[in-house]
Amino acid sequence: MSIRRVAPAAAALLTLLAQPAAGQRPLGYLHGEGPKAWPVVQLTLGLLAIACVVVIVTSALVVVGIWRRRVTDITDIRSVPPTRAGGGLRWIAIGLGISGVALLGSLIWTVVVLAAVNGPSRPTRLTIEVTGQQWWWKARYLDDDPSQQFITAGEIHIPVGEPVRVRLIGGDVIHSFWVPALAGKMETIPGQINETWIEAGQPGIYRGQCSEYCGVQHAHMGFLVVADPAEKFAAWRAAQLRPAQVAVPQQTGATLFVYHCGACHTVRGTGAGGTVAPDLTHLMSRGILAGDVVANTIGNLAGWIANPQGVKPGTRMPAQDLSGPELQRVVGFLQTLK
Amino acid sequence: MADPELERRPEFATATVAYAHDLERLWETSPGIAGWLSTVDHKEIGIRYLVTAFAFLCAGGIEALLMRLQLAGPDRHVLGPHAYDQAFSMHGISMIFLYAFPVLSGFSNYLWPLVLGSRDMAFPRLNALSYWIYVAAGLFMYAGLAIGQAPNDGWYNYVPYANREYNPGMNEDFYSLGMIFLGISTTVGSINFIVTLARTRAPGMSVNRLPILVWGTLTASVANVLAVPSVSLAFFLLWMDRQFGTHFFDVPQGGQPLLWQHLFWMYAHPWVYALVLPAMGIVSDGLPTFCRRPLVGYAPVALATVATMILGFGVWVHHMFATGIPNLALAFFGGASIVIAVPSAVAVFAWTATIWLGRPVITTAFLFFASMIVLFVIGGVSGFMTGSVPVDWQLTETYFVVAHIHYVLIGINVFPVVGGIYYWFPKFTGRMLDEKLGKWNFWTMFIGFNVAFLPMHLTGLWGMPRRIYTYSPDMGWTTLNAITTVGAFIFAIGVAMLLINVVISLRVGRIAGANPWDAPTLEWSVPSPPPPYNFAVIPHVASRHPLWEDRLGESEVTSLVTRGLLLDHGRETIGTSPLDGDPDVILKMPGDSYMPLLLSVGLTMGFVGLLVHLWWLAVAGAAVALIAGVVWLWPRGTLGQRRVRHV
Amino acid sequence: MPRLAHLLVTTLLLAGLAGCGRGDGADIRRIGSARHGAQLIAQSGCGACHEIPGIANAAGRVGPPLGNVGTRSIIAGVLPNTPDNLVRWLRMPQSVVPGNAMPDMELTEHDARDVAAYLYTLR
Question: pTM for the whole thing?
Answer without folding.
Answer: 0.91
